[in-house]
Amino acid sequence: MRLGQIAGVDILLRSSWVLIAILIAVLIAPRVEQVAPGLAGPLAYVAGVVFAVLLYLSVLLHELSHALAARAFDIPVQHITLGFMGGGTHMDSDTNSPGREFVVSGVGPLTSLVVGFIALPIALVTPDGLITFLLEGLAFANIIVGVFNLVPGLPLDGGRMLQAVVWWMTKKPYVGSVVAGWTGRVLAVLVVAGPLVAQNLTSFEPNLFDVVLAAVIGLFLWQGASQSLVMANVRRKLPAIKARTLARRAIGVPPDLPLAEGLRRARAEQAGAMVVVAGDGRPLAVVNEAAVTATPVERRPWVSCSAVARELDTGLLLEATLEGEALMRAMQRTPATEYVLVEPTGGLFGVLSAADVDQAFAAS
After folding, report:
1. Backbone angles phi, psi at 224, to 5 degrees
2. CA distance 274 to 276
3. Range name among 61-70, 136-145, 328-337 with the lowest pLDDT average
4. For the chain, what is the mean pLDDT?
5. Are residues 227 and 302 in the same domain?
């Protein structure tokens, strides 16, 4: 659900947030009844939901700091999502330097720590009661979130900071991602084993909730770290993917040219694609290969090229200079089977087939 915008960034709320709000309300309702005896029964759970809202507002501040830092480095931000396991800031592209990666990742935990250390002294001077309890809970929750997020393992912010440091030391972002990803997997195993280790080394007796919570957090960390390792491998292959080298040669044809004549011209010039162009040479549409195949040979002299072409909507016209991650992101924004490539001057260069890109990526 879209809640609105802050500083031009869309704020989205997943339905899973309802689960965490209910869980928080159930866990702290007994304590609310102790500190505020007048809020017995359903009102105690209402206070729990209020605390969940306050907690997620602080999570929103954490994510908003990431978003604003990214935009300060001219990195477009799609949206911020709040859900069961906290929040996430989704950007259109990754940072292009280890220093920027370190800053964008580090401001989130710093924001949580600032919120925690502001709320804590206020709670200490507030008279005992529900407000003090909520402030103390908010303070300690943010301090824990800030410290935990600084742990150097992906997908945590500390993992991204570690990734940036290794990237800076090795000059290879791929190596940083691998190191931080495997550190995240080790962290996931330690979190799952945490209750058992604590039981053997201390007098702490974990209950079922402790074990389940450790398993959920460990699974979240393991999945995030594993996804980061997969993406690291993808990014390692991306530099080999270049639009200019994968493009098929294309010829420009007028809209009313019969398809049969267009195919003849393409064969004569050994071109693998046709683009419908205006009188000034501006690309208007790309002739669809599947539509051409589906057109019977005997009808092709009577069908115009524009009749089997797809208009060039926003996103189907790409610069021939695109390569690597920039190319993949441009294709992801507008999924299609073919894209028209143009030179920086606006002239037609060729047609890029999504199938050719997939094949090149698999071969790499």
Report:
1. -65, -45
2. 7
3. 328-337
4. 87
5. no
Give backbone dihedrals phi and psi of 353, rounded to 5 degrees, phi first: -95, 135
Q: Are residues 127 and 175 in the same domain?
A: no
E-assigned strand segments in 151-306: 248-253, 273-277, 283-287
Q: Cβ atoms within 10 A of the Cβ of 94, count?
A: 16
- For residue 340, how many other CB atoms are within 10 A of its CB? 25
Nearest to 38 by CA among 46, 227, 71: 46
CA-nearest of 360, 336, 328 to 245 is 360
Length of the chain counted residue by residue:
364
User: Could you report the per-residue pLDDT of 62-91, keeping only the tens digit for each?
Assistant: 999 999 999 999 888 889 998 877 888 988
Locate 137 and state its tokens: 């809970």
pLDDT reported for residue 65: 95
User: CA-CA distance, 27 to 41, in Å (whole number)?
Assistant: 13
DSSP 90: E
The answer to whether residues 243 and 323 touch, using CB atoms and an 8 Å cutoff, is yes
d(CA 52, CA 138): 9
Say what the pTM is.
0.70
CA dist 274 and 172 (Å) reads 40
> Does residue 145 share a domain with residue 12?
yes
Q: Judge if 107 and 6 occupy the same domain.
A: yes
pLDDT tens string 233-280? 777 777 778 888 888 889 999 999 999 999 999 999 998 889 999 887
Cβ-in-10-Å burial (0-12, 13-18, 19+) of 175 comes to middle
Tell whether 146 and 16 lie within a shared domain.
yes
Q: Name residue, tokens 């997020």.
A: 149
> In the Cβ-directed half-sphere of 220, how many Cα atoms lie within 13 Å?
14
The tally of domains found in the chain comes to 3
* Displacement of CA 172 from its chain's centroid (Å): 21
Q: Tell me: the pLDDT tens digits for 188-227? A: 999 888 888 877 777 777 777 778 878 888 888 898 888 8
CB contact at 8 A, 139 and 120: yes
CATH of residue 303:
3.10.580.10
Mean pLDDT on 114-122? 92
Shared domain check, 231 and 203: yes
Question: 180: domain range?
Answer: 152-239
Locate 206 and state its tokens. 């974990």
